[in-house]
Description:
The structure holds 2 protein chains of 2 kinds. Chain A is mainly α. Chain A has helices spanning 21-28, 31-58, 63-68, 75-84, 91-103, 117-152, 157-171, 174-188, 202-236, 239-246, 251-262, 264-288, 294-304, 307-335, 338-345. Chain A has a single domain (34-62, 85-342), classed as MetI-like (MetI-like fold, Orthogonal Bundle), CATH 1.10.3720. In chain A, helix 6 crosses helix 12 (264-288) and helix 8 packs across helix 12 (264-288). The longest helix of chain A is centred in the middle third of the chain and has 36 residues, at 117-152. Helix content of chain B is 73%, strand content 0%. Chain B contains 9 helices and no strands. Chain B has helices at 15-37, 68-104, 106-120, 124-135, 138-166, 169-176, 181-217, 229-236, 244-276. In chain B, helix 8 packs antiparallel against helix 9.
Amino acid sequence: MTPPRSPGPGPANRPAPQRPWHVRLGAALPLRYVLRRLAGTAGLLAVLSAAVFALLRVAPGDPARTLLGTRSATPQALAAVRADHHLDDPVAEQYGRWLADALHGRLGTSIRTGQDVTAVLGDRLALSAQLVLLGFAVAVALGLPLGVLAGLRARRPADRAVQSLAVVTLSTPVFAGGLVLIYVFSLMLGWLPAYGPGSGGGGDRLLHLVLPAATLGLSVTAVLVKLTRAAVVRELAREHVTFALARGIPTRRVLIRYVLRGTVVPVSTGIGLVLAYLLAGTVMVEQVFALPGLGQLLVGSVTFKDVPVVQAEALLIAALVCLANLTTDLVHPLADPRLRTAAATAPADRDKGQA
Amino acid sequence: MTPRTPFRARRIPGVLTFVCGSLALILGVAAVAGQWILPHWDRQNLLTGAAMPGGGHPLGTDELGRDIAQMVVAGARSTLSGAAVVAVGSMLVGNVLGVTAGYLGGLTDMFVRRWADLLLALPALLVTIVVAGIGGGGYALAVAVLVVLTSPGDVRLVRAAVLEQRHRAYVEAAETLGLSRTTVMVRHIWPNVLPVVVANTLLNFAGSVVALSSLSFLGLGVPPGAPDWGRMLSENRTLLYDNPSAALAPAVAIIVSAVVLNLLGDRLFEAFSDRRS
């Protein structure tokens, strides 16, 4: 553990004048570390994309039949599909071609509707993105303050109350929570619309997204509360915090500069996790609130075995997950000086800071 | 062996624990025997249709005139048994991999950790939706996929616990005696790791109740006709005007089960960390 800066008055203790930003950034994030993380992400993406490609083979039966869907499986049609998708080539070659196409935005055509998959995804992306962003805002706005409160008041009534709330939200499946919210706020109180994306402009859309976003946000709040609480409790028990308080530094200042600062790394790790939960939650929320977003498309396509659409969505999700991981890895050394030396020598230890 | 000290007296008298334990027992009985006790849970009465509570139906009826209360009891089995399989299965996988990786270290450890990291980065529910849906294997496949995706959490937990034990004197003593590595792992280290594992299994159980009922809600879990809370909820959610409890009762059942399991798991964790300190 790093000792706290020595106390004492006078300008002698001021930090040295700051170096230019690119020098500081270079010290915090050595190029080798960044490159290694990028390579790791690329590797992860390669593994995941191979898994996504393999989905066509996971579907029971002949891939050509799967790709035909409900069209009649005449030998000519099957042969045409085989030729079209190069199904008789070696698997590695097929994977390479598929990946190259995907990288160029050519994701094939939907079996169900015959539409271009890229266009279909594009139509639905906006709604889901709005939903995830709003849900994320709800989760952060609730989870972080409640977690800090619970951590500061650990084992006291306020903490117990927050923890109970967290357990209940953690135990509530998204669809059940959404249903309860619809029942209370739409049917009993009549304040908010229950279903659909709304027609017309931004205001109406926003009104229709209030309940879905609240449902989505609440479903992941517990994760943030737990992580933040644990981090605050751990930081409060640290020697440098006790010492700072003993030195007579105002409590508020200690809390902000020492305790909360120390929670940045575990909490930002948690936020990366939350994104994964949010993506899964959107699927359920869109189903409950009849929102035509990516999640609804995914469920519809999965039940119909519309493999190209499912593959495209899975690839999109995989890319988002990799991106979130990469971002947390790159942000950590910026937030925590101790990880900078680690970053310079070894890959960041992902276990660090987890409860 | 580390010295055994008794569990420290709890700060709050165990009222909550007692309530949770009783509820867990009731849920267990409903899951095991519910369909024997109430053999007529699926008796239909199309003339009544969806009706509000009353007239011998404490929670009313659904669209086919089936009694909601009886269906909720009968539905305990599929939801809870699937989740129990996921929790226990992931515990087994987690223990085998976690103890081996933690004790052997080296390359084994690296591979196991990479594997766990990879799976942990994935959104479990989404992967299950995609694989179970495309694979078309129904409930069994969904449960199997969830086992694979839940286990890395156990692997990490067990591995960390083993690493903590790894350098204790009793391990060294056992090794000095010339015991085989398997014996040291299974007979000496594993019992000391077990309490955390049990607590975590309860938490996984709770999580799996939520996950499996979500899948059933989407129509990817149990087959149509089988009593299941997630499925009931999805079929009855259009009845919110006619008989709200048709949709709300299974929702409450899911939430209560998960809360009970979560609280019991948390309590066990606390008891264990109290003992250790």
